[in-house]
Write a structure and sequence with these properties.
393 residues, alpha+beta, Creatine Amidinohydrolase, six-stranded mixed beta sheet, five-stranded antiparallel beta sheet, 9 helices, Pept_M24, Creatinase_N
């Protein structure tokens, strides 16, 4: 039962970026992105208008944070020094970060960005106003392939997502409101997860439980990113569900198309088209497979069935610390500008959501399963039943 990333993972990641730094002329590597900082150090924070800047040299790791993050980061064993400013804009965060770099003897950096991202109204100077900056995307690429430890965390996430989804199906009935059913299922699954794991659960959430389970219903299902409608469920409604669980920052994705009561012949038709498309995609997965070929196989099937006008997105995406990560299972991935030729191919350790969907004017039909590419094939991480009769509530 994997519930926490071992310390050795962070040691290996820092060693890898230091190896890459040694191949450059820069004095340090820096990160502004919250996910990259978390990936290298384990310090996780919410990206707001208050910049956080991580600096790595061949000998030291230092960080600049707003005052409100000091206590959360100062005990981190991988960070040698913490610098802080009071707040934004009065605290001049980039100037403080530049002072941190000067104290480390840094005159040039390779960075994931030339300054903090402009979120929540942030407007600040570029880092290149203070030091020489070249770009790098090292951690973004490193995250494509997960280690065995990372796969174990996603596998654990899928287990609790499955429980949340079972509660969701159990509590769904005509006359219920989808928002309150979602809250109840999420709460019950989170309670079971926290009671089972105890202090082995690594705190990663604020104000909610680690399991998230819910769905959209009615006409909103015709929109791939629809909202939960403010209306109770009725017999004949189509649902598109979703469940996941946060396990030390890692996530899985489980989605099903479900029906409240009996389904019609038309609904069964579209469900079976979607299910076959997902089966085609899963059967095409494996190490060394061109990523774009998987999406193309599904598109060819949709063309054969005459339903390309009902498709609105590609087959899926990588998943891990973020809900969406590259590579993307898209027909255009092969033509995408890759750093290495092998980046166009699936590789062991990549974990994909497989979720081709079709959307009529009345409803949408989409399953999503989380599947890891292995040395010899694939491993299904999610496992809720996929057939139509198992998805009637």
């Amino acid at each position: 039962m994997a519930t926490r990333l071992p310390e050795s993972e962070f040691d290996a990641r820092l060693a890898q970026v230091r190896g890459r730094l040694a191949d450059t002329d820069a004095d340090a590597a820096t990160w502004f992105g919250a996910t990259g900082i978390e990936y290298l150090t384990g310090f996780h924070h919410i990206q707001t208008e208050r910049p956080v800047v991580l600096a790595v040299t061949d000998e030291r790791v230092e960080i600049t944070v707003p005052r409100l993050e000091v206590e959360r980061v100062e005990s981190n064993p991988r960070i040698d020094a913490v610098h802080h400013y009071f707040d934004y804009p009065g605290g001049a965060p980039i100037e403080v970060a530049a002072g941190m770099l000067e104290g480390m003897g840094v005159e040039s950096v390779v960075s994931d960005a030339d300054g903090a991202p402009g979120v929540m109204g942030y407007e600040g100077p570029a880092l290149s106003e203070f030091v020489d900056v070249e770009s790098q995307s090292w951690t973004t690429r490193m995250r494509w392939e997960k280690t065995d430890a990372e796969v174990g965390l996603v596998r654990e996430s899928a287990k609790w997502a499955n429980l949340g989804h079972r509660y969701l199906a159990e509590y769904t009935e005509a006359g219920a409101h989808p928002a309150t059913v979602s809250q109840r299922a999420s709460m019950e699954a989170s309670r079971a997860m926290l009671d089972t794991l105890g202090d082995r659960y690594s705190v990663r959430v604020r104000g909610s439980g680690p399991v998230r389970a819910g769905y959209i219903s009615g006409e909103e299902t015709a929109l791939p990113h629809g909202h939960t409608p403010n209306e109770t469920l009725s017999e004949g409604d189509v649902l598109i569900t979703g469940a996941s669980a946060n396990v030390d920052g890692y996530n899985s994705e489980l989605e099903r198309t479900m029906f409240v009561g009996d389904y019609t012949d038309e609904q069964e038709h579209y469900f079976e088209l979607m299910l076959e498309a997902q089966t085609i995609a899963i059967d095409a997965l494996g190490p060394g497979v061109p990523i774009s070929d998987v999406d193309r196989a599904v598109w060819d099937y949709f063309e054969e069935q005459g339903v390309t006008d009902l498709a609105q997105h590609h087959v899926g995406h990588n998943i891990g610390l973020d809900g969406h990560e590259p590579p993307y299972i898209d027909r255009g991935w092969g033509e995408y500008e890759h750093v290495d030729e092998g980046d166009a191919l699936m590789a062991p350790g990549q974990i994909y959501t497989i979720e081709p969907g079709i959307y009529t004017e009345e409803a949408g039909y989409r399953h999503s399963d989380t599947i890891a590419v292995t040395e010899n094939g694939v491993e299904w991480l999610t496992y809720f039943p996929r057939d139509i009769d198992s998805n009637v509530v």
